[in-house]
């Protein structure tokens, strides 16, 4: 398997594991004290920022990957805004910020997936980006009514887990079917 695709596959497995863990914690700790819930809400975009930086570094750096660069910056700003919104407006403020972030992160993920479609395994990332953007719009709308609790945001992360897992599995099983770039050059 091409080293870039191998790295991408492993990274998708990591992202799936983190998304699953966050979703499980969100459900289990949904009625925990506000400080715990607020911390979980801040950790999700903070991890996304770190993940985008890690992924960009593995594939040419942030300058070569503007979608990931902007996604990382958006996620860092979101983590800061999330903490502020949760402290000032509670759950409704946090859901509003979460929704705006999900919309923007989804659009960036969609752009990255389209840009990487030749690598394979990106159909799931494209679908995930589109679904994230749609969920973001719904979360923003809900924040002005009865805002959902963190446990109701868990399916968002669970779908992220599913899409990253499917992409990783696709890249894993593609390995056995398609010769790597280096194999094709030596033939």
Notes on the protein architecture:
By secondary structure, this protein is mainly α. The protein has one domain (3-186). The protein contains six helices and no strands. It has helices at 3-28, 34-58, 66-115, 123-143, 150-177, 181-186. Helix 2 (34-58) packs across helix 3, helix 3 packs across helix 4 (123-143) and helix 4 runs antiparallel to helix 5. The longest helix has 50 residues, at 66-115. It is globular and about 45 Å long.
Low-confidence stretches: 181-187
Secondary structure category: mainly alpha
**How helix-rich are the residues, as a percent range?**
over 70%
Biggest sheet features: none
Q: How many structural domains can be distinguished in the coordinates?
A: 1
The number of helical elements comes to: 6
Rg (C-alpha, Å)? 17 Å
Mean pLDDT: 88
**What is the percentage of strand-forming residues?**
under 5%
Number of strands: 0
H/E element sequence: HHHHHH
Shape: globular
End-to-end Cα distance: 15 Å
Provide a short characterization of the protein structure:
With 187 residues, the protein is mostly helical. It has six helices and no strands. The model is unreliable at 181-187 (pLDDT under 50).
Give the SSE map:
Elements: H1 3-28, H2 34-58, H3 66-115, H4 123-143, H5 150-177, H6 181-186
Structural descriptors:
187 residues; mainly alpha; 6 helices; disordered C terminus; transmembrane helix; membrane; transmembrane
